[in-house]
Amino acid sequence: MEYRKSGLSLNHVQGCPLDCAYCIRHTYGLWDSRKPTALMSDAEAVELLVRHRYFRPHTTPLQIFNRATDPLLPGVKDHLFVCLEDLDGRGLTNHILIITRFILKPEDRERLNALANLKVTLLFTYSGITDKRIEPFASSIAAVSMKLASELRPRRYRTVFYWRPLVPGLNDSPEHLATAAELSKHADAAVFTGLFYRGEIADYYKANGLPEPYEGTARRKIVPETLEQRVLEAFAHAEGSAVLFRKTSCAVAYAHGLPDYNGHYGIRELCDICPVRQLQLCAGAHNIPTARQLQEAVVDLPEAAGLMVLDVTERAAQVEGLPDEQPRYFLQHRFAFQIHDAGHPHLLNRHGRAEIGWEQPA
């Protein structure tokens, strides 16, 4: 288990044969694990999840099989449904994100729709990349799965067009952008993001003679400023396209008619593309915690013993002293309010992205 920005992530099945060159598995030492393998039983995994120190019933957003495999792969899908049905049977109403680029079948959507309590969101990863050295498994398959999932009426689960990774010169032509805007019509919401280009991924690109997308690597996802503007313009001119968001949790929350659980409303420049009704929802849920409340929330987390709250404004809380991002995300979801590490500042209008492709502030 790992706490990530979009949720507490359960990954007890690991291994994926899809071989996307940019896969985050590189950074976890799992690239060579291509056969999905369960590390424990589903019942044990769910029990570990609900007893985890970061888990809060009905509050903690969850992800399942998002880091080391695809949840709809043969040999993985059965595990997915056992876990979902276990969690749902406990009456839990947490958000749960299922990120996939694989084949969804009619019986899968019926089984998903039978879940009565969980707020399920299917995020269909689509890039439009046609270079099979980088993405051997065609994006068109995810598009077909998304259409099938969204066609079901009525349905409790929601669908998101997960447009990623966008890479200049690879999948950002006018035709790519127009196709994406058209496909988004088949989802409840859309979100776009760039490439995690970490050192391990760059090493793989170099070793295999793949065209390197950037000269350097970055801790955050890379979305150059000019690319973002072109994406926003493409959607603005596409009649009937899905509502587009910069952040995953914003799209998920919108699809369910709820305020953003990551509290992005404090970073108001993120919200300039949001519908008015969503802004109103997020504004109504925007409560600013005190430094004392933040400190009290982590009193039972040994890894957060060094937490120092430097400042709290309407935008975000600035903290330091945390060993990694996991307790920070716990706080962020506990209060639905942005928690920023002072060592990795969020600069105005960059939207929490890497500095590559953005003008440095004066």
UniProtKB/TrEMBL annotation:
GO MF entry, a single one: metal ion binding
Keywords for the protein's UniProt record, in alphabetical order: Iron, Iron-sulfur, Metal-binding, S-adenosyl-L-methionine
Top-rank lineage group of the source organism: Bacteria
Name the UniProt record assigns to this protein: Radical SAM protein
